[in-house]
Amino acid sequence: MRKITHLILGVTILSGLLMACDNAASENRSLVNILLVDAPGDFEQVWIEVLGVEILPAGSRGSAENASWIHLPYQAASNMVRISDLVNEERLLIGRTEIQSGMVSKIRLLLGNELYLIQDEIRIDLDKDSDFENKLEIDINVNALPGNSYDIYLDFDLARSVVRSSGGNYQLDPRIRAFESGVTAVIRGSILPRNVNSHVYVRSDTDTLTTLTGSNGGFYLQGIPPNDYQITIYAPEIYKDTAFNVSVQADTLLTVPTITLRPQLP
To answer: Where is the signal peptide (predicted)?
Structure first.
């Protein structure tokens, strides 16, 4: 009977140790969500083949040492994504995973060869820029704390990424920035008349972000570092440009009052 008691006690202690190890392991993990958004371009439809994403988190010692890339395949009915639709508050979840807590230093978007735009109902294939693959790897600085969840955005700037080459073909020259939503701000607003496409620039001493208004006259800019900014609205020639100053803090949404464009005097 004494031996059985000792056996039960040993199993109980071992189970407790295993549970403690599991809890310690789970407490040193963080959840990461990777999302894709777009800064609007001048084309109604731009399609890209999204294969997935890779992230470079902290290694076993909580730093870049011993770190290795984590592959997240994009799992959907189709890998073809009309990225031109991911404007204003639309976003696409590419993947999510738990990682070792610590610094996330790089993220890499994985694209296939199916890249094209639609212009006047005609499909035009996009050539890849000569440095295409390298431009899909972006530096980022996210300190993932244990037990927390982080949204990392990849902002694909179509207006700067789709360029016309000297031979008359169109080329995809990826211009992507990465940001973590919890340490940045969002600025949104609306411009009248709604059917006037205007360029919106948000400038500070260190950053310049830009977007186009949508069909409803609205604009939505994410991933803005805390700072003081000047917002400039560049309107078509028949209207005057408009500029004003704002200040944003981390993890905030700033809605600016509706902006009415003033006509140019004859």
So the answer is: 1-20
Q: In residues, how long is the chain? A: 266
For the stretch 13-64, pLDDT in tens is: 334 434 433 444 456 899 999 999 987 777 879 999 999 999 998 665 545 5
Amino acid code (one letter) for 107? I
Mean pLDDT of the residues in the chain: 86
> For the whole model, what pTM was predicted?
0.81
What is the DSSP pairing of strand 170-172 with strand 162-164? antiparallel
CA atoms within 13 A on the CB side of 54: 12
As a dihedral over the C-alpha atoms of residue 193, residue 215, residue 234, residue 159, rounded to 10 degrees, the angle is -170
Domain boundaries of the chain, sorted by first residue: 29-182, 184-266
Q: Which residues pair with 248 in a beta bridge?
A: 227
What CATH number is given for 29-182 in this structure?
2.60.40
Three-class DSSP category at 83: helix
- pLDDT band for 67, please (50, 70, 90 cuts): confident
Dig out the tokens for 89 from the structure: 């508050």
Residue 107's nearest CA partner among 56, 65, 33, 31 is: 56
Q: Which class is 184-266 in CATH?
A: mainly beta
At residue 156, does pLDDT exceed 60?
Answer: yes
